[in-house]
């Protein structure tokens, strides 16, 4: 890697990282506005008809809800710039304590999903590409279209109904056995956790795997039609060598970009799936924060989500540049 390439790569990464700042401001502002125009108030979640006006006023002052919206917005942005999100209204603890408890669980579920869907999708897409027009290509295409069109939350409910309720093969909700998990050996705890990962992972990953298969098929068919593939075949190379060494290697390049685009889809899809399976992750935390109109917690959750997705996409761009020397960094 030349010094000039390293410099351009570093400058490109710096520009992309700086672009995250206006994105964060836009996301935080949008969330704040949506909460403000929503009916009710966070205080309404903690009072009832017997609550005295004095108690309600005290809560309003404690959470600064007695101030005008623009004042609270400016105070919030000031705190965000110092990475101080304050305390959660609904959980009565620092916001980052809640996030540090739930974020690893979402990263675990999302990582398992991504590490599963890409090998499956790439294998299926490759089979379709090398067997174009054959029954296996038609069957996988129809199946991919069916699962790609299926909402993840509906699939989650069907999995719970079939494998959890009727067949009773897998646990319906939670992250591990609530009673005996603490007394398990390491291997027993691993397989227990794996059982609880299966259905949420499948619900999140099936549609994405179907999409990866369709993209891989299209990419492979486009590569197979290139002149250098005809040249390789004309040289007498075995078809397996032509496909594996020349066609698949080049067809995988667009998949790197697709991987970066999958990050926001996986994270957004985790919200409904985690809530359906009572998985203690960021998705479930966001739903509970929305229900309680917990502004500090919501702002912090979307702040972290935006950072994870943005820097995940940046890492994808950098990897793509490293494996494809034709990429330029002047844009």
Description:
- The chain is mostly helical and 331 residues long.
- The protein has a domain at 91-284: Orthogonal Bundle (MetI-like fold).
- The protein has helices at residues 3-37, 53-62, 69-81, 95-130, 135-148, 152-166, 186-224, 227-234, 239-251, 253-276, 282-291, 295-323.
- The longest helix is centred in the middle third of the chain and has 39 residues, at 186-224.
- The radius of gyration is 25 Å and the shape is globular.
- The mean pLDDT is 81.
Brief summary of the model shown:
With 331 residues, the protein is mostly helical.
Q: Give the strand content.
A: under 5%
CATH superfamily of the domain at 91-284: MetI-like
Query: Share of helix among residues?
Result: over 70%
Given the helix and strand composition, which structural class is it?
mainly alpha
Order of helices and strands: HHHHHHHHHHHH
CATH class of the domain at 91-284: Mainly Alpha
Outline type: globular
CATH architecture of the domain at 91-284: Orthogonal Bundle
Rounded to an integer, what's the Rg over CA atoms? 25 Å
* Individual helix count: 12
Low-confidence stretches: none
Mean pLDDT: 81
CATH topology of the domain at 91-284: MetI-like fold
Describe the oligomeric state of these chains in a short phrase: single chain
Total beta strand runs: 0
Tell me the distance between the termini.
Answer: 20 Å
Largest sheet: none
